[in-house]
């Protein structure tokens, strides 16, 4: 069976040799350089301990310095799988997602035709180059001179000129004996609709040869000299040789330069690529008159892991960058991404190099931003988020974009970066709060601290210090239980239904706890992971991390066995009961204290006695928990205020009895 022309080239373009070989070997991490496609491993064809088997991912060949085994991806599969050539092609094609072509008895004939078409294209390159030196190209040479094109540059890029007229190239090629269907098949001429001779595709244009990854001329780009021409730039039509969505201008030289360590730059047009390469940035490519396609993006990633998109600093350039982001998001892989270097407004790389030199371009490349930053810029620039609805709209649009990323690890990191930027936007560039348990007084909150450095902190009066310590102790105990409740509900959302009323009654003095409580009630029973996503958006990337880091939370059975409904139910029952007992005790003491404004009687004494007993039970329970958590001193003690109240009450009763 013969394969159609270009099938093997496309197959080798889609599949990385290191991916094929990587299934059979363990790479030597010390010798290998994944970024440059320079990989080393012990040879799979003979037993050895050293890494003498070399894979050159960019050239697509492997070689063993021990046994001299060598070949490409197809040969490697043949040798390691013990299959024939077509079977190896089938294996690799399946991996690349390409369908094997049906049998084509004329495939060899087509391959021969492609060879003939390439030869015709080379003849056209030479014709156009010669025409640039004629009198008819005077204006074209003047234009190139104004653009700073030296003689060496014209030679390097094989710049030519298509003279004005209908059959200049046609007549030249026909005079060389080239068949008419080959000239038309190469895209160099078009059939006449009026019954006359075919006419040249390119007329009165500066010509830029377009070569494929193997250096073969496959198309042309032409820059019009007539300012009134409908198309300023014109590419060859698609032919058997040329698929503009699968081609890059300057592909082969850029791949070579990138292999030597230069960053891969992606510009918009031929002149930008030429200016960049002549300015020292030789690993520069450009799409061919269209937005970057998925195939072109894959080709770029074959050359470099993180191409830098150097687009024009105008509205069209920014739109092109945004379209590229939407294309790239679903295709991202670990280590494969894009960075963006936007040119100054109204300038392209060619303008910048000619006006300010290569150092100006290098400065912009050094400041190139990752794709996530440009995505954020698109969703936020020029918008005001002064209402919950607008903020929710931003959250929704960003979530929809992040969902496009297939790789879960990359999707998580994008979410983390977006949350950091969201926090800075909505909280005035403050860092997310790193809440942590403070044994001397509840929770610390870095973003919401009332007193700032340098501002004097008010000191309590000596007469109130003891009661404040007791209040702080109560606050810490309640905050501790709230944290366990919230963490348990997040770990096992199914338990929320049973305790929904308890959550609604839980006051939550700590602001972050109040936000978590509200999010649990709103999103706890929604789609999987929705609650965690909403928490991260609302409180930043450290909220859950800090909550789980608290010792009394970390040792909770609910955290050790997330999803266990029985354990979660028992934990929440106990914690809610203890919190509500404390709140009930506080209310009873407050009411009893109010009653002391009159004469004390046995009823008040009894109520305070009951309150004291409840208090003792609560304190004993707290001490048991604190002994378990190791976060506070052991021993139970009555609140100083409560003891004062009991003492006053006793004195009052004794005084009353004496009076009687």
Automatic annotation (TrEMBL):
<feature type="region of interest" description="Disordered">
    <location>
        <begin position="432"/>
        <end position="455"/>
    </location>
</feature>
<dbReference type="GO" id="GO:0000428">
    <property type="term" value="C:DNA-directed RNA polymerase complex"/>
</dbReference>
<dbReference type="GO" id="GO:1990077">
    <property type="term" value="C:primosome complex"/>
</dbReference>
<dbReference type="InterPro" id="IPR002694">
    <property type="entry name" value="Znf_CHC2"/>
</dbReference>
<keyword id="KW-0863">Zinc-finger</keyword>
<keyword id="KW-0460">Magnesium</keyword>
<keyword id="KW-0804">Transcription</keyword>
<keyword id="KW-0548">Nucleotidyltransferase</keyword>
<dbReference type="GO" id="GO:0003677">
    <property type="term" value="F:DNA binding"/>
</dbReference>
<dbReference type="GO" id="GO:0003899">
    <property type="term" value="F:DNA-directed RNA polymerase activity"/>
</dbReference>
<keyword id="KW-0235">DNA replication</keyword>
<dbReference type="Pfam" id="PF13155">
    <property type="entry name" value="Toprim_2"/>
</dbReference>
<dbReference type="InterPro" id="IPR006295">
    <property type="entry name" value="DNA_primase_DnaG"/>
</dbReference>
<dbReference type="InterPro" id="IPR006171">
    <property type="entry name" value="TOPRIM_dom"/>
</dbReference>
<dbReference type="InterPro" id="IPR050219">
    <property type="entry name" value="DnaG_primase"/>
</dbReference>
<keyword id="KW-0479">Metal-binding</keyword>
<keyword id="KW-0639">Primosome</keyword>
<keyword id="KW-0240">DNA-directed RNA polymerase</keyword>
<comment type="subunit">
    <text>Monomer. Interacts with DnaB.</text>
</comment>
<keyword id="KW-0808">Transferase</keyword>
<comment type="function">
    <text>RNA polymerase that catalyzes the synthesis of short RNA molecules used as primers for DNA polymerase during DNA replication.</text>
</comment>
<dbReference type="InterPro" id="IPR030846">
    <property type="entry name" value="DnaG_bac"/>
</dbReference>
<dbReference type="GO" id="GO:0008270">
    <property type="term" value="F:zinc ion binding"/>
</dbReference>
<dbReference type="GO" id="GO:0005737">
    <property type="term" value="C:cytoplasm"/>
</dbReference>
<feature type="zinc finger region" description="CHC2-type">
    <location>
        <begin position="43"/>
        <end position="67"/>
    </location>
</feature>
<comment type="similarity">
    <text>Belongs to the DnaG primase family.</text>
</comment>
<keyword id="KW-0238">DNA-binding</keyword>
<dbReference type="GO" id="GO:0006269">
    <property type="term" value="P:DNA replication, synthesis of primer"/>
</dbReference>
<dbReference type="InterPro" id="IPR034151">
    <property type="entry name" value="TOPRIM_DnaG_bac"/>
</dbReference>
<feature type="domain" description="Toprim">
    <location>
        <begin position="262"/>
        <end position="344"/>
    </location>
</feature>
<protein>
    <recommendedName>
        <fullName>DNA primase</fullName>
        <ecNumber>2.7.7.101</ecNumber>
    </recommendedName>
</protein>
<keyword id="KW-0862">Zinc</keyword>
<dbReference type="InterPro" id="IPR037068">
    <property type="entry name" value="DNA_primase_core_N_sf"/>
</dbReference>
<dbReference type="InterPro" id="IPR036977">
    <property type="entry name" value="DNA_primase_Znf_CHC2"/>
</dbReference>
<dbReference type="Pfam" id="PF01807">
    <property type="entry name" value="Zn_ribbon_DnaG"/>
</dbReference>
<dbReference type="Pfam" id="PF08275">
    <property type="entry name" value="DNAG_N"/>
</dbReference>
<dbReference type="InterPro" id="IPR013264">
    <property type="entry name" value="DNAG_N"/>
</dbReference>
């Amino acid at each position: 069976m013969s394969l159609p022309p270009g099938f093997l080239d496309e197959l080798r373009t889609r599949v990385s040799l290191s991916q094929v070989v990587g299934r059979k070997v363990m790479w030597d991490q010390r010798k290998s350089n994944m970024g440059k496609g320079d990989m080393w491993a012990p040879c799979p064809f003979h037993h050895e301990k050293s890494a003498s088997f070399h894979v050159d991912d960019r050239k697509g060949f492997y070689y063993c310095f021990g046994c001299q085994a060598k070949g490409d991806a197809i040969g490697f599969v043949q040798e390691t799988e013990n299959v024939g050539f077509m079977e190896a092609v089938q294996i690799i094609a399946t991996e690349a997602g390409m369908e094997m072509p049906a049998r084509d008895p004329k495939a060899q004939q087509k391959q021969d035709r492609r060879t003939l078409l390439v030869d015709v294209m080379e003849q056209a390159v030479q014709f156009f180059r010669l025409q640039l030196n004629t009198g008819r190209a005077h204006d074209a040479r003047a234009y190139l001179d104004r653009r700073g094109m030296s003689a060496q540059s014209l030679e390097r890029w094989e710049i030519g000129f298509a003279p004005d007229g209908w059959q200049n190239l046609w007549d030249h090629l026909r005079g060389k004996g080239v068949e008419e269907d080959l000239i038309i098949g190469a895209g160099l001429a078009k059939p006449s609709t009026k019954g006359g001779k075919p006419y040249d595709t390119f007329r009165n244009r500066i010509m830029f040869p377009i070569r494929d990854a193997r250096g073969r001329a496959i198309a042309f780009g032409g820059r019009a000299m007539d300012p009134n021409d409908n198309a300023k730039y014109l590419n060859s039509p698609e032919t058997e040789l040329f698929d503009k969505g699968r081609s890059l201008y300057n592909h082969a030289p850029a791949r070579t330069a990138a292999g030597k360590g230069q960053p891969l730059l992606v510009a918009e047009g031929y002149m930008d690529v030429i200016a960049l390469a002549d300015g020292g940035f030789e690993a520069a490519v450009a799409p061919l008159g269209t937005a970057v396609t998925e195939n072109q993006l894959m080709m770029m990633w074959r050359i470099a892991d993180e191409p830098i998109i150097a687009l024009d600093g105008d509205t069209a350039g920014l739109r092109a960058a945004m379209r590229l982001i939407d294309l790239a998001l679903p295709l991202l892989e670990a280590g494969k991404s894009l960075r963006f270097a936007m040119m100054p407004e109204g300038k392209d790389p060619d303008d910048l190099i000619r006006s300010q030199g290569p150092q100006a371009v290098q400065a912009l490349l050094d400041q190139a931003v990752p794709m996530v930053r440009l995505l954020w810029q698109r969703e936020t620039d020029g918008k005001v988020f002064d209402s919950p609805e607008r903020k929710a709209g931003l959250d929704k649009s960003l979530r929809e974009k992040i969902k496009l990323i297939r790789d879960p690890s990359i999707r998580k990191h994008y979410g983390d970066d977006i949350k950091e930027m969201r926090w800075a936007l909505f909280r005035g560039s403050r860092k997310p709060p790193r809440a942590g348990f403070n044994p001397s007084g509840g929770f610390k909150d870095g973003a919401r601290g009332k007193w700032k450095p340098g501002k004097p902190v008010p000191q309590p009066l000596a007469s109130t210090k003891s009661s404040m310590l007791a209040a702080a102790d109560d606050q810490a105990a309640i905050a501790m239980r709230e944290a366990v409740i919230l963490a348990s509900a997040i770990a096992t959302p199914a338990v929320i239904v049973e305790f929904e009323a308890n959550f609604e009654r839980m006051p939550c003095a700590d602001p972050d706890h109040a936000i978590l409580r509200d999010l649990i009630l709103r999103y706890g029973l929604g789609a999987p992971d929705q609650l965690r996503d909403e928490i991260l958006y609302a409180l930043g990337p450290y909220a859950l991390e800090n909550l789980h880091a608290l010792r009394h939370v970390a040792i909770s059975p609910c955290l050790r066995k997330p999803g266990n409904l029985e354990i979660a139910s028992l934990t929440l029952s106990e914690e809610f009961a203890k919190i509500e007992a404390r709140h009930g005790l506080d209310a009873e003491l407050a009411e009893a204290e109010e009653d002391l404004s009159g004469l004390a009687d046995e009823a008040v004494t009894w109520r305070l006695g009951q309150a004291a007993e409840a208090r003792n039970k609560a304190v004993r329970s707290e001490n048991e928990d604190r002994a378990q958590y190791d976060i506070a001193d052991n021993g139970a003690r009555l609140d100083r205020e409560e003891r004062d109240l009991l003492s006053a009450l006793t004195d009052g009763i004794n005084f009353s009895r004496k009076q009687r």
